Amino acid sequence: MIENYNISIVGQHSYCASGGTATHPTEIARVLSKKNKVFFVTTCSRKKVVYENDNLIIYMEKAINHGKTFKKIKRAYSIRNNVDLFHIHDFRSGLLGVIEPKRPIILTVHGYITETTNKGSLLYRIFLKLMKVSTKRADAVIAVDKTIYNWLEHEIGCETDRLYYIPNGVDVNKFSPSVDGSEVREVYGISNTDKLIFSARHFVPKNAVEYTIKAMPIILKVHPNAKLMLAGEGPLEDKLKILVRKLDLNENVIFCGVISYDSIPKYYAASDVIVNSFTHISGVEEFETSSLLDAMENGRPIGTSITTLEALSIGKPVITPTVGGIQKEISDREIGILLPDKDPKALADACLHILDDQKLANRLGRNAREYIVANRSWDKIVEQLSEVYTTVLEK
User: Fold this and answer.
1) Model pTM score
2) Residue 265 lies in a domain
3) What is the CATH number of the domain that holds 154?
4) Concatenated DSSP letters for 191-236?
């Protein structure tokens, strides 16, 4: 890791928010602050906060909607004289580099423009222009997923001599097999003999939570006391609850709302099987320019889910579809089970396979934990980042 530098991390979402785009910069800031001075710039919807602890200073600017970008750029620019390098995690905030030409700019891209607007809209065209300006100004551009890397190269036009692939990571101490999940079972009245399937997903179309629900009647034929616990919220919540009632699953499906980031390891630890569902988007897995564009017309390409990595790190068996940036790593190693998406029968069969074979469950969990510790801890990720930082700083 580099040492004794002043680094500004400009986050995409609130320091306290959930999700990969919030977790990633937050964890990088945490690790870097062990040996560097880190200024973390982000936003919040509540009162403006400035928090300082040893080598980490957090600026949470009160803002909503597109005002977030302006507030982050304004704050980052105000501290420029104290900073050796800016590491930005939002392509819109990458415009900081246009008004601050002297200091190195590193831009990490976590996803696609279609995450925030529909392709072909006026806002999409504006964001596309902003993405191209930000990546052109950046001294280095980092993609957290190989499909994003290819998109940046082929569609955005980022030169490969400035383009890097550095994946998402995991806090392997927080998400550890040593975590005790007994409290979660006790709170929800789930006995030690009941089988618990857990899924933490936003209730949005791309996450296909309804197919996990549809798998439950098949599972219940073999394990009538099995429970499905769903953590999250979103626009499809009412429809999912209607589906549960329609399938007569009220006694077997638990909606537990949004779970804090600090609490989620306990829920993973309490589970027998963890399901991380996504919808399939054709054409993304084997990248071609035309197929990626078609995929983006129909939905959002999936990168490497941090929630999947965290579930793997806890040492429990994980089921996930054959879509997204983690699939090749799972298919190359026995660290999880890959399934076709939108297939409740296949999902139910996979759950039953794990629930009825404890040796398999233990082997999958052990292999997953070993792989994550060896390759995806945030310390490992920051080591890779440090090489990029050093290259940029020495130019």
Assistant:
1) 0.82
2) yes
3) 3.40.50.2000
4) -TTS-EEEEE--SSGGG-HHHHHHHHHHHHHH-TT-EEEEE---TT
